[in-house]
Design a protein that fits this description.
Elements lengths: L3 H12 L9 H22 L5 E8 L5 E3 L4 E9 L2 E2 L1 E2 L2 H6 L9 E5 L3 E5 L6 E9 L14 H18 L4 H19 L14
Parallel strand pairs: 5-6
Antiparallel strand pairs: 1-8, 2-7, 3-4, 3-8, 6-7
Length: about 200
């Protein structure tokens, strides 16, 4: 978890721009924020638990909606009384909006309201696990990533800035795919090789 200023300094070193001649601070900061989103999307797809937030509470009888503290970019799971709920279509839930009983499903309204369906008739314990949206970083912030992933962030920003000047989208796409592959290898390492003995040994 490096500071944004440390990240910027390392990016400038990679770009041979320590005198801040080629890239202004706004370019560097924009690229850091793009890189954070790029890396978080990969993590959210492969290992969402690393980014997971959890909201636990009890829903009163007759209450069906929970307002999350932040906007989720991904809902990992919703449980009611320890049982996993399936996500349902909003139109279906509205069609039978007056249904009551033990919640079996959930649906999202707006950007951060989880609705249980049917509406519980008794107090119901719930757990909601999400990957939450993040705010843009400023110069005073620290990276929200693990330090190991900050290395990929520096690499992403340096490549994006340097290749961006050359207008070669093919090369940029290949380099971004290479970074994504490296991140995937950290998140999901390949299986350990197995040595087998020959039939006659």
């Amino acid at each position: 978890m490096l500071s944004v200023q440390t990240l910027a300094r390392r990016i400038r070193q990679r770009l041979h721009d320590t005198d801040c001649i080629t890239y202004d601070d706004e370019n560097i900061l924009d690229c850091i924020n793009c890189g954070v989103r790029f890396i978080r999307r990969i993590i959210a797809r492969l290992r969402p638990a690393l980014l997971m937030s959890e909201k636990i509470g009890t829903l009163a009888a007759g209450i069906k909606a929970i307002e999350l503290d932040t906007r989720p970019t991904k809902i990992i799971s919703v449980t009611a009384n320890g049982k996993a709920l399936e996500e349902t279509e909003l139109a279906f839930a509205i069609h039978k909006a007056d249904a009551t009983g033990e919640p079996k499903e959930f649906y999202l309204t707006g950007t951060q309201t989880i609705n249980f369906y049917p509406t519980p008739t008794e107090p119901t314990d719930y757990t909601i696990r999400t990957v939450d949206d993040i705010k843009e970083l400023t110069w005073e912030d620290n990276s929200p990533l693990l330090t190991e992933f900050d290395d990929f962030l520096v690499e992403y920003a340096a490549i994006r800035l340097s290749v961006g000047n050359e207008y070669d989208m093919t090369q940029e796409s290949q380099l971004m795919a290479n970074i994504a592959t490296q991140i995937q290898q950290v998140l999901i390492p390949p299986p350990v090789g197995i040595i087998t003995r020959g039939y006659w040994q």
